[in-house]
Design brief:
binds FE2/S2 (inorganic) cluster; 2 domains; 274 residues; 16 strands; elongated; single chain; Rieske Iron-sulfur Protein; three-stranded antiparallel beta sheet; 40% strand; binds fe (ii) ion; 20% helix
């Protein structure tokens, strides 16, 4: 029992990732309005540290809450408390049980203030539905990141295979209808698009936490990462808000004027040099 609060529901789930991925996700306040765009509209961080984080969170429809997420290392558990705004006083307790590299179980309890007995079940069902959705989204991010991390690890452990200096993508007229095209080059994923009348390749993996850029739309020469909203100029690789992050250098896309054959070329694009 927690004083003045009623437990309206419990949600349990086993995640196919390590505890390290789950705790990283718990500390990652920045993903809320991006990965969980259907549930949260904005976030403004107030404070963060090893203890957790505190932030103002904008809700769809104009509401705003102050949320505090506190980690209890010895449990191990974290508690999210709504400090101000709609639902103030509610607490969500999440126990984290790391069972191995590919398994972590979470148990989430929803504790609310001032709940009439007859309303508890409906509120509990609402929370379980919301948290199923949030954990679905978190699980897809964590498994994608675990896969990219292990691909990165094995690439650094394997002696660099003699990657071809150029790869043909076929005739321009055949390629155009396939754009945007996902390609592998030198063991890494890229996307080829047409921008300002030129073919451009850019990394399909975000340099922040290895988020997927391969399906993100390109608008005005910029691609926005779906995990935390960092935005990159596909021509220069630079992050558009001035963060010191850059897309990995892509191959150049060359078109042979003689025969319209399109090639990926390993030589670094000069724009990525600086
Ligand atoms: S992984 Fe964080 S912005 Fe791309
Ligand atoms: Fe999340």
């Amino acid at each position: 029992m927690r004083e003045g609060l009623t437990r309206v529901g419990v949600y349990e789930r086993s995640l196919p990732v390590s505890g390290e991925r789950v705790w990283e996700n718990v500390h990652d306040w920045e993903h809320l309005p991006w990965l969980h765009a259907g549930s949260f509209a904005a976030i403004d961080l107030v404070d963060s540290g090893d203890w957790g984080w505190r932030a103002h969170i904008g809700l769809h429809g104009g509401g705003r809450i102050l949320l505090e997420l506190v980690i209890e290392d010895d449990a191990p558990r974290y508690v999210s408390r709504t400090v101000e705004g709609p639902g103030a006083g509610s607490e969500i307790w999440t126990d984290v049980d790391a069972r191995g590299d590919d398994e972590t179980a979470v148990r989430v309890e929803f504790w609310l203030p001032g709940v009439a007995a007859e309303a508890a079940d409906a509120l509990g069902a609402m929370y379980v539905k919301l948290y199923t959705q949030l954990w679905d989204e978190d699980e897809s991010m964590m498994t994608d990141r675990a896969r990219e991390l292990s691909a990165k690890r094995s690439a650094s452990e394997t002696p660099r295979a003699s990657a071809p200096a150029t790869v043909s993508l076929g005739r321009l007229s055949d390629l155009r209808p396939q754009l945007p095209l996902s390609v592998r080059f030198g063991g890494r994923g890229f996307r080829v698009v047409e921008h300002d009348g030129r073919l451009v390749a850019y990394s399909a993996v975000c340099p922040h936490l290895l988020g997927p850029l391969g399906d993100a739309p390109v608008e005005e020469g910029r691609v926005v990462c779906p995990w935390h909203g960092y935005t990159f100029d596909i021509e220069t690789g630079r992050e558009c808000s001035g963060r010191r992050l850059k897309l990995p250098p892509p191959p150049r896309v060359l078109v042979d004027p003689e025969n319209e054959q399109v090639y990926l070329d390993a030589k670094l694009d000069a724009k990525f040099g600086g």
